[in-house]
Specification:
By secondary structure, this protein is an alpha+beta fold. The chain has a single domain (8-224), classed as Hypothetical Protein Pfu-838710-001. The protein has seven helices and eight strands; from the N terminus they run E-H-E-E-E-H-E-H-H-E-E-E-H-H-H. It has an eight-stranded antiparallel barrel with strand order 1-5-4-3-2-6-7-8, surrounded by five helices. Helix 6 packs across helix 7. The radius of gyration is 18 Å and the shape is globular. InterPro entries: CYTH-like_dom_sf (IPR033469), CYTH_domain (IPR023577), THTPA (IPR039582), ThTPase_euk (IPR012177). Hydrolase highly specific for thiamine triphosphate (ThTP). GO terms for molecular function: magnesium ion binding; thiamine triphosphate phosphatase activity.
Length: 227
């Protein structure tokens, strides 16, 4: 059992038009702009991503994004609420490296032989990646402009990836096991205020990156209903 309290990201992606940006600048508080470089890792057989697990290194820090149970906190959804939920994703982020090692090892031990070698602190990163047969399959840089809606606990990010894809995200962070319904409602109301009318789920950066650069990996995840 984890000793670390994990947060769950509930988010909806959207395509940002000039009108949407204008509305956002009027209603949100700008939290500035930053740039970050992401590297994503998996085994050659896609053992992690086929389970919707995303191992990422960002700005020198490791994160493992794991899907939450879709029924958690959303068992009594009305038609409209169910539709709103379908437009959103829910992931918990593990940032403790020891726990990340344990989770990854647990997933891949059945599909490939994990080399049982002691990793000294001097060997560090390259050693555990090699031991678990993990390789980088995606790498890109993102410029992110962020806005906060403080009264709602909502953050809105506008991302521009270096492979030519622009996408927005409406995000609410809740504790693991927290009120998903409330988060979904905040996102729905924010989308309404921004004038977002689309009822189709918008693709994230990774979907588009894989489709353009690794179509075989993309097709495998699509057929497994991960994407």
């Amino acid at each position: 059992m984890s000793l670390f309290q994990m947060s769950v990201e509930v988010e909806r992606k959207f395509l940002c038009s000039a009108d949407t940006l204008k509305t956002l600048e009027e209603m949100g508080v700008s939290a500035g702009q930053r740039q970050f470089h992401d590297q994503y890792f998996d085994t050659p057989k896609f053992d992690l991503t086929l389970r919707d697990l995303w191992l990422r290194k960002r700005k020198g820090c490791w994160e493992l994004k794991c899907p939450t149970a879709t029924s958690n906190g959303t068992t009594e959804l009305s038609g409209a609420q169910s539709h709103a939920a379908a437009l959103c994703t829910r992931y918990k982020e593990i940032t403790d490296l020891t726990e990340i090692h344990l989770r990854v090892k647990e997933v891949i031990k059945d599909s490939c032989e994990v080399r049982e070698t002691e990793t000294s602190s001097s060997e560090g990163e390259e050693s555990w990646l090699s031991n678990m047969n993990l390789v980088c399959f995606a790498e890109f840089t993102t410029v992110r402009r962020s806005f906060t809606l403080e009264e709602d606990g909502v953050q809105i990010d506008l991302d521009q990836a270096d492979f030519g894809y622009h996408v927005g995200e409406i995000e609410v962070l809740i504790p693991e096991g927290g009120d998903v319904m409330s988060a979904l409602e905040k996102i729905r109301k924010t989308a309404q205020k921004l004038g977002l009318t689309g009822d189709q789920k918008v693709e994230g950066k990774m979907n588009v990156y894989l489709k353009r650069n690794h179509p075989e990996h993309y097709a495998t995840l699509l057929s497994a209903h991960v994407l």
